[in-house]
Amino acid sequence: MTIKRVLMTMFALALIALAEVFWFHAMRSGGAMDGDDEDDKPVVVPERVSTIDGQRVITLDALTQKQNNIVTAHPAAARAPRHAAIATQVLDSSALSDLYRRYARARRNAPALAAALRRSAAQGYGAALAAALTRPTSAFAEIFRGKSALLEITVPAGGTAPRTLPARDIRGRRLTLSRLAPAAQPEHWFYRAATSAGLAPGDTVSIFLSGAAAAAGVTVPAAAIVWHDGVPWVYVRRDGRRFTRLNLARAVPRADAGYWTAALTPNDEIVVQGAQLLMSEEFRARIQSEG
Fold first, then answer.
1. Domain shared by 97 and 66, yes or no
2. Is 204 inside a domain boundary?
3. Domain ends where: 193, 209, 225?
């Protein structure tokens, strides 16, 4: 064998050895990269909040409920007190104030427009309030100028609208509401609260009515109540793992800070511990879906 051929053979063997080393390191690097990819994969969190028939539903298995200290109980059966209360909200009267200003201008310069605005007021707020646009008393003037809080309540069928009504705001302060005028709907009346009451649109007010018929329902403890938009809510568990939020806007406040409501029965399961956590989970999911 010539020296030239020996050198060529040795060169070829060296190339093969280098190729094997390169392949070995490439396989190791690839395996490491694959492992890194596995580590970088996001942890899949099960979807807990869904929408069923237009209602938000939170689904939690038994273990998750236990880990988060969620406790449920059956509400106690009770009848509504005869001196009952209804919860309502202060109305946003800005649209009414704007209508009053437009009517005052149109009455001087555009009678036809003024008549149309008055008809619109009658349809939306009732004939008495529409008539007051022309020559408002001091009580109506305060409402039209946004100086007094305006509330609309439903008087029980066959009942009368008292001249004044005792009430409490969400902070427990005592209020006296004054009857203003019948509203557009039957058995609905407008009442007003004085400027000194410090109420704002959307504030919840509990109005006490006497002579209300006792009805079957349940009592809901204060620990079960969560507040949203000035309205009390309660979470109800169904099928052992699905939770939905129930509006208690028409519930009757009790002296023990709980509520009486006819919207539930003693067979329902309500969340008496962990309701605030469920609300946080519900709205966290809503923010993520909207974002």
1. no
2. yes
3. 209
CB within 8 Å of 32: residues ≥ 6 apart: none
Q: Of 176, 209, 242, which marks where a domain is finished?
A: 209
Please tell me the total number of residues recorded for the chain in this structure.
291
CA distance 291 to 289: 6
201 has pLDDT over 80: yes
Arithmetic mean of pLDDT, 186-206 = 86
Contact 84, 208 (CB under 8 A): yes
Which parts of the chain are beta strand (E)?
Answer: 49-52, 55-59, 71-73, 76-79, 84-89, 149-154, 164-169, 174-182, 188-193, 204-209, 216-220, 226-228, 231-238, 242-247, 252-253, 259-261, 269-273
Query: Which of 175, 291, 282 has the alpha carbon at shortest distance from 228?
Result: 282
Whether pLDDT at 45 is above 50: no
Amino acid identity, residue 224? A
